[in-house]
Specification:
about 450 residues; mainly alpha; two-stranded antiparallel sheet
Length: about 450
């Protein structure tokens, strides 16, 4: 009966996929044509991806840069610090297509990442019995991801965030009994962890949010298991693996070095955070005199060590030291800066429909959740207990924290709207069912046992 309810709740997904998601995907792919005549991207890292992919086309080696005579070196040695995901995908596509890369490939890769992420997250929701909410989510999410097309890594952040959220969703759902079959759970978790590795490769900061969310879900499962006198081995292992995945990108790059016989790069091989944390103090007016400019960070680092090179690992160590010393020199000023940036971040507006500020979306979602609690016990089959809500809340908190600590620019914050949408749509099926059908008798699973409802997440 439980499996039948999941399938029934997932029926609306089919027409949404056919009439909304598939056309949206094709439209987004078509937007790449606007870059057909572009020969130079406005973002430095994008041009680096193309150079690296050309090197891959000539040598057959991924994540490398070519010097004279096509002598290969590590990607970061040639092009500097960057998340390697886009370079890996564009290089792989170059080998598959058997042609040199073009800039419009960047837009196509962003589209594929976004739609793979959306479908993966919707699939995870379907697995947990939230098929109706997944359909509503896709209706809102497609216009959002299609609103941004650029020759940069930023448009793909939507899909990356969805991929990063998948492990926590699966773990929370397992804890709540929504994924009871151990083989289904194991398979789903393997897919989810693979998605998280992809997120870490594509956008380190968002991948770290996924690690944090998965760790919280795993530790919550540990606490719940101990409370009920159950074994904590599996939940502890899941939480431990979640944290260990932080080193997956570095491990992949070491495998590359060994496979190609490359010298390890002296530069950062991912995006890094200390540079952004330090300069983030300069995104608003501040008494520290810090400016949101890469050149400012380099200037300050050279005051400490004149021969330091950006973006070497040594530079990032100095940037972290500068950040900590600045915070400790005037903690109240730092708090004022963070509070100002948090206020700005809540006022960022959705670039698609509905054209509302983030805080307005969150208020609307909160009102719906408060209302839905009155009917929760009558409609658990259309509003599964808490997995989606918990994951959405964690990711919203992470995006707002990133905005406060680094920058409230909408470029980096708009993926938060995906999770605001999730919070908004999760209680809607329960409220609609109550308004239209008059309570539990309107639903086929009104005899479902609710013995564990007291332990539900909110």
């Amino acid at each position: 009966p439980h499996r039948g309810r999941k399938l029934l709740a997932g029926i609306p997904v089919v027409p949404v996929l056919y009439s909304w998601v598939a056309p949206g995907f094709m439209h987004s792919l078509g937007q790449a044509d606007q870059f057909a005549e572009v020969t130079q991207a406005p973002v430095r890292v994008t041009n680096s991806w193309l150079h690296a992919a050309n090197c891959t086309f000539r040598t057959g080696k991924l994540l490398v840069g070519c010097g004279e005579g096509d002598e290969v070196v590590a990607y970061a040695t040639r092009y500097g610090a960057d998340d390697p995901g886009h370079a890996l995908l564009i290089g792989s596509w170059t080998l598959f297509a058997d042609r040199p890369p073009v800039l419009s490939d960047v837009s196509r890769v962003n589209t594929v990442v976004n739609y793979v992420g959306l479908l993966a997250l919707a699939g995870g929701m379907f697995l947990t019995g939230a098929g109706i909410s997944a359909s509503l989510f896709l209706l809102l999410a497609v216009p959002l991801v299609n609103a941004s097309h650029a020759l940069s890594p930023h448009p793909a952040q939507f899909g990356v965030a969805c991929l990063a959220a998948l492990p926590a969703l699966v773990i929370f759902a397992r804890r709540q009994g929504q994924v009871a079959n151990p083989y289904v759970f194991g398979s789903a978790l393997l897919v989810a962890f693979s998605a998280l590795v992809g997120a870490l490769l594509l956008r380190q900061a968002i991948g770290m949010m996924g690690v944090l969310a998965a760790m919280i879900a795993g530790l919550f499962w540990v606490w719940s298991a101990r409370r009920r006198g159950e074994s904590i081995v599996t939940p502890l292992a899941v939480a431990g693996i979640s944290v260990a995945l932080l080193w997956a990108p570095a491990s992949l790059l070491k495998v590359r070095d060994l496979a190609y016989g490359l010298e390890p790069s002296a530069n950062m091989e991912q995006h890094g955070i200390s540079h952004a944390l330090f300069l983030g103090l300069g995104t608003v007016e501040n008494s520290f005199g810090i400016k949101w400019l890469d050149s400012y960070g380099v200037m300050r680092a050279k005051e400490i060590k004149p021969d330091v090179q950006y973006p070497s690992k040594e530079y990032y160590d100095i940037a972290m030291d500068l950040y900590v010393r600045t915070i400790l020199s005037d903690p109240l000023e730092a708090l004022r800066i963070y509070w100002k940036k948090l206020q700005k971040s809540l006022d960022v507006r959705n670039p698609s429909l509905p054209p509302v500020a983030l805080w307005q979306m969150l208020v609307a979602a909160a009102i719906l959740h408060v209302g839905s609690r009155w009917y929760r016990n009558k409609a658990e089959h259309v509003m599964p207990r808490g997995a989606t809500t918990a994951v959405s809340t964690i990711f919203l908190g992470c995006f707002l924290a990133q905005a406060a600590l680094i920058t409230p620019q909408s470029t980096y914050l708009v993926p938060a709207f995906l999770f605001a949408f999730l919070l908004f749509v999760t209680p809607l099926p329960a409220l609609i069912a109550h308004a239209s059908g008059g309570g539990p008798s309107a639903h086929p699973d009104n005899r479902r046992s609710r013995s564990s409802a007291g332990e539900a997440l909110t």
